[in-house]
Specification:
Elements lengths: L7 H6 L1 H16 L1 E2 L9 H7 L10 E2 L2 E2 L5 H18 L3 E3 L5 H12 L5 E5 L15 H5 L1 E5 L10 H11 L3 E4 L10 H11 L2 E5 L4 H5 L12 E5 L10 E5 L4 H12 L5 H14 L2 H23 L3 E2 L8 E5 L7 H10 L2 E2 L1 E3 L13 E5 L1 H5 L7 H17 L2 H16 L10
Parallel strand pairs: 1-13, 5-6, 5-7, 7-8, 8-9
Antiparallel strand pairs: 2-3, 4-10, 9-10, 11-12, 12-15, 14-15
Helix pairs in contact: 3-11, 4-11, 5-10, 7-8, 12-15, 13-15, 15-16
Length: 423
Amino acid sequence: MSLPLSHPALSATDPELAALVAAEERLQSDTLRLIPSENYVSQAVLEASGTVLQNKYSEGYSGRRYYEGQQNIDQVETLAVERAKTLFGVEHANVQPYSGSPANLAVYLAFAEPGDTVMGMALPMGGHLTHGWGVSATGKWFRGVQYGVRHDTGLIDFDEVRELALKERPKIIFCGGTALPRTIDFAAFAEIAREAGSVLVADVAHIAGLIAGGAHPSPVPHADVISTTTHKTLRGPRGAMLMSREQHAKAIDKAVFPGLQGGPHNQTTAAIAVALHEAAQPSFRDYAQAVVANAGALAEQLLARGFDLVSGGTDNHLILMDLTPKDVPGKVAAKALDRAGIVVNYNTVPYDPRKPFDPSGIRIGTPSLTSRGLGTQHMAAVADWIDRGVTAARTGDEDALTAIRAEVAELMAAFPAPGLPTD
């Protein structure tokens, strides 16, 4: 598929960079994107991200700035905040964090002191670096203790979580992660946090769109603080939000600014406002439900082809598979699938004997393909491509990968992606 010139000013000023953008547009257009943390944003979100709001510095918060000329910026940020509060049903929202990791770091600044004990899911079990893992600043500046999943089921063992929390008494407990294919039991975490005297933080970066669309239970009745990125399933720009009960509003706001950041990225705030407006529409609920339905259908098709799925399947948008029975390392499979036009990421699986940079598994998800309009009727073909691609990775059959690549491009041409130029 050839795409028309879509950035004339950029092409005139910097043709080298413009060519790279065009190449990325083509790549995103004709490949099957299965990385669960990626998505397509709408043209409206893209346009908001590139406005003259980029030109304005706005340290502080609406009505309380350290720069003048904020008449319009204040309204933009207030719009985003109010939309977040309404969509998620929260008492307070801060839309200024630059991304998910700084948002989580602001939580530490708000509720803990360096050296305090914090608790989160271990990274190899599906958690996130910023939940106190050792190589992260959060694991170096704080004393991180980690819980995991059961070896036999791949599910969180809440008896273990409770025992660990009561023993360690962490200041903060994180729930949520980056490779969790099952519904998060926020109520169970909240009960443990109350008993341990801990602040419960629900990191819903991956599932925020599912929550907004009613396809996953909300943490709002249970968590003290909710941290999320604004892309992934929420289909917004690369940014983040912190939401909380009113009693924590001052601590959260102070931690974000001036604790960690200077001026917010106003063009991103505007794009967040657009994404939240889109997520409040009935069609977004249909989208969130379709994401989950597609993931479930894809999991069933993969199981039928002999794939080993962590926890046996999925409740959300994400599937984590252990390729050990297929006799292919995750990294080898991911790179082969990429050559076949199927974009995934290699990923550790619970109790993985291999190293993180060369793990046993791959992680896939359905947000992007659902945004393009693919439905459950297409998941057998997707599973078949994955199966053939993994087999080709094991045997070194590049011709098979080339054939899959052509089939993928043909289907993608029938389902144009939001926000991308079309013929």
